[in-house]
Design brief:
CATH architecture of the largest domain: 3-Layer(aba) Sandwich
Order of helices and strands: HEEEHHEHEEEEHEHEHEEHHHEEHHEEH
Bound molecules: 4'-deoxy-4'-aminopyridoxal-5'-phosphate
Structural class: alpha/beta
Strand order of the largest sheet: 4-12-11-10-9-5-8
Distance between the termini: 20 Å
CATH topology of the largest domain: Aspartate Aminotransferase, domain 2
Number of strands: 16
Oligomer: single chain
CATH class of the largest domain: Alpha Beta
Length: 423
């Protein structure tokens, strides 16, 4: 467990115990890297470990805790909903309220289907796109993440992209075309040659998972035009960006409307809910039964109560300006620390999510991101955790509605201490 001077006796005991009954001691491989810390509880922007150490949280459970941990209004709504029962194999009015609220809040979609994970929502989108177009191919982009299933999990493989896991069927990637992102000319070229075989283009409209890279001006607009002219379904994967970049997510922020979009994470303040939203002519294919989308736990009372309470809170008391201000100040503070300590610390991206690394490069896509010293940051991230800043090695920092001046001060003081010890 890293070089942390603080005792982690209880965490270590629990990790050993966990490793005997759970592979790697974790329930998601995303949690395999990094220290095996067990937490007792979390409140707002703070985590407390079972050994009594506190952490200012900029990982936020990989994004979902946009309202901070245990937001009172959502906890209350969920507790109340638990008393009604959870799943009926039928419907409850809260589902309707939550679905209406999703469509109203986003502004553009006509309909929404709830599910449990972002991974599933992406698969449902592919199925709709293939059914609607009668085509098979999916265009996706280097570095974007769309879940852990066989047809979307990919890793760099020599000059191209291939399977990322043992046991993954390479044949499931046969219908997947991988292109560099932020390059509309390249997409235009590929679609000019074979656009009539492409069912969907899917992307994170801001590539948060790899480097928090924004679309270049005009890029999303051109992708939109290309998809329309080739009869291709444009899917925005807003699992991370949705309700985080503003009430309208990335589509609202950049003013480009997809045909379908996936949401999760900030949608329900940490409760496991995902959604696929889109135009009625596409979504209705689920309603007629032509396209299958199922799930025992979809749209449970508890899940939809969490969606409703989260979106009401975001609508009635929008945290976006404060989140942006905090993110800007934190990025500036990190850059200043770099200057003070004479290291090329880079903090870039959106204020609500940003990327920290070492180096200086014109980063516009996954390949240019590799010019940064990402490995050096991974080591720093371990030390930041040792000093009570909860971040992941991948360099993406998430800001919540609960991050204020106290958290800013704690984060920068602890970051400075880390650099003093490390350099
Ligand atoms: N799409 C994006 C953009 C994501 O960031 C993630 C998860 N990080 C997923 C899809 C998959 O979501 P889940 O982990 O809920 O299956």
């Amino acid at each position: 467990m890293s070089t942390d001077a603080r005792p982690h006796v209880r965490s270590q005991e629990l990790h050993q115990r966990a490793s005997r009954c759970t592979p790697g001691g974790v329930h998601s491989n995303v949690r395999l890297p990094g220290p095996r810390i067990f937490f007792e509880r979390a409140d707002g922007a703070w985590l407390r470990s079972v050994d009594g150490h506190d952490y200012v949280d900029y990982l936020l459970g990989q994004g979902p805790n946009f309202l901070g941990h245990a937001p009172a209004a959502v906890v209350e709504a969920v507790n109340e909903a638990c008393r009604y029962g959870v799943i009926f194999g039928g419907q409850h009015e809260i589902e309707v309220q939550a679905a209406e609220l999703v469509c109203e809040t986003l502004g553009w979609p006509d309909m929404v289907r709830f599910g449990v994970s972002g991974t599933e929502a992406v698969q449902a989108a592919f199925r709709l796109a293939r059914a609607a177009t009668g085509r098979t191919k999916i265009v996706r982009f280097e570095g974007h993440y769309h879940g852990w299933l066989d047809n979307v999990l990919m890793a760099p493989d020599g000059d191209g992209w291939g399977t990322a896991s043992a046991g993954q069927l390479a044949s499931h990637l046969d219908d997947v075309v991988v292109l560099p992102w932020n390059d509309a000319d390249r997409l235009a070229e590929v679609l000019a040659a074979g656009g009539d075989q492409v069912a969907a283009v899917i992307m994170e409209p801001v590539m948060i998972n790899a480097g928090v890279i924004e679309p270049l001006p005009g890029y999303l607009e051109r992708v939109r035009e290309l998809c329309t002219s080739h009869g291709i379904v444009l899917i925005f994967d807003e699992v991370l960006s949705g309700f985080r970049l503003g009430l309208g997510g990335a589509a609202g922020r950049y003013g480009v409307t997809p045909d379908l979009a996936t949401y999760a994470k900030a949608l329900a303040a940490g409760w496991p809910v995902a959604a696929l939203a889109g135009r009625a002519d596409l979504m209705e294919r689920f309603g007629t039964g032509e396209v299958n989308h199922s799930g025992t736990f979809n749209g449970s009372v508890v899940a939809t109560a969490a969606v409703k309470a989260s979106l009401e809170r975001l609508r009635d008391d929008p945290p976006y300006a404060a989140v942006e201000e905090h993110g800007m100040a934190l990025m500036a503070g990190i850059r200043e620390l770099g200057e003070t300590y004479g290291v090329p610390l880079r903090a870039a991206g959106l204020p609500a999510a940003f990327h920290v690394s070492f180096g200086d490069a014109d980063v516009v896509d996954y390949r240019t991101l590799q010019q940064l010293d990402l490995a050096r940051y991974e080591k720093l991230a371990d030390r930041l955790v040792d000093n009570g800043v909860w971040v992941a090695p991948r360099g993406v920092w998430y800001v919540s509605a609960c991050h204020g001046p106290g958290e800013l001060d704690a984060a920068l003081t602890r970051f400075g201490k880390t650099l003093t010890e490390w350099l």
